[in-house]
Amino acid sequence: MNMQEFLKNRQQFCPDELAKYAGKFVAWSPDGSRILASDDDEFRLDATIKASGHDPADVLVSFVPYPDEVILGGGGIVE
């Protein structure tokens, strides 16, 4: 994974499209240009990644917070 390419593409991802995944974990393509899968549960998402033929080592998984949620060091605060 080329992290510079990933971050560049991830920053250009449409915010309105990303908002559709609020409250879910998402699996990003290795280049950060698209979301491969999403789920409320990290373990199910991992299984989906594997079942779709992707190597989990090549996929970055992140959580998409709700618009009114602030993530601080692994915790969440809802305003």
Task: Give a brief description.
With 79 residues, the protein is of the alpha+beta class. The chain has helices spanning 3-11, 15-19, 42-51; strands at residues 24-28, 35-39, 60-64, 69-72, 75-78.
In oligomeric terms, what are we looking at?
Answer: single chain
How many alpha or pi helices?
3
The major beta sheet can be summarized as: 3 strands, antiparallel
Question: Which ranges are low-confidence, i.e. pLDDT below 50, for 5 or more consecutive residues?
Answer: none
Secondary-structure element order, N to C: HHEEHEEE
Derived structural class: alpha+beta
State the distance separating the first and last CA atoms: 35 Å
Helix content: 25-40%
Count of separate structural domains:
1
The fraction of residues assigned to DSSP E strands is: 25-35%
Explain how this protein is built.
The protein has one domain (3-78). Helices cover 30% and strands 29% of the residues. It is built from three helices and five strands. Strands 2-1-3 form a three-stranded antiparallel sheet, with helices on one face. It is globular.
Would you spell out the secondary-structure blueprint of this structure?
Blueprint: H1 3-11, H2 15-19, E1 24-28, E2 35-39, H3 42-51, E3 60-64, E4 69-72, E5 75-78
Antiparallel strand pairs: 1-2, 1-3, 4-5
What attributes characterize this protein structure?
two-stranded antiparallel ribbon, 3 helices, 79 residues, alpha+beta, 29% strand, single chain, globular
